[in-house]
Design goal:
Elements: E1 5-7, H1 9-12, E2 19-21, E3 30-38, E4 41-49, E5 52-57, E6 62-63, E7 68-74, E8 80-87, E9 90-91, E10 98-101, E11 104-107, E12 116-124, E13 129-136, E14 138-139
InterPro entries: Ig-like_dom, Ig-like_dom_sf, Ig-like_fold
Family: Belongs to the LAG3 family.
GO cellular component, one term: external side of plasma membrane
Length: about 160
């Protein structure tokens, strides 16, 4: 997993044997075990790393009015009970423009107003709640509603 994995050597003296993984990938999910030997003593601990991913299809850049699919997946082993999506902190109703199924959100005609922070929240049968955020960028025209612009001859027009 090198070079994505590091241990803080300076923290070892203080008894901190933390492992840092940056960036985390889906395949990093699983059980990790640390084993520390000091003199005749051996200590172990186990930590399970769960990973949640949000993916975009088709991949960026997203063009205004072209359908897109945001998918939310987790390595959690329990059964998925509910998936909710939030846009800029507000719960998204799944009707009309937005359709949600099994952790995926389909946006049929994305608009410039759909850009921003999207968070999926997954609730499982064991009451575990997991969430992740995706920053959606959309290419489109964010200009005046009237497409006619007048400029004086000899001047610049934007």
């Amino acid at each position: 997993m090198r070079p994505r994995v590091s241990v803080q050597d300076s923290a070892l003296r203080n008894g901190n044997f933390s492992l840092r993984i940056n960036p985390v990938r889906s395949e990093d999910a699983g059980l990790y075990e640390a084993q520390v030997a000091y003199n005749t003593e051996v200590r172990t601990c186990q930590v399970e790393l769960g990973v949640i991913t949000v993916t975009l299809s088709p991949p960026s850049p997203v063009v205004e009015n072209e359908p897109l699919l945001l998918s939310c997946n987790s390595s959690h082993r329990a059964s998925l009970v509910e998936a909710c999506w939030f846009h800029n902190g507000l719960l998204v109703p799944t009707s009309g423009t937005f359709c949600s199924l099994h952790g995926a959100l389909s946006i049929l005609r994305p608009a410039m107003s759909d850009a921003g922070s999207w968070r999926c929240q997954l609730r499982y049968s064991d009451n575990e709640i997991i969430s992740a955020t995706y920053n959606l960028q959309i290419l489109g025209f964010d200009g005046p509603t009237n497409p006619v612009v007048y400029a004086a001859a000899g001047s610049a027009a934007d």
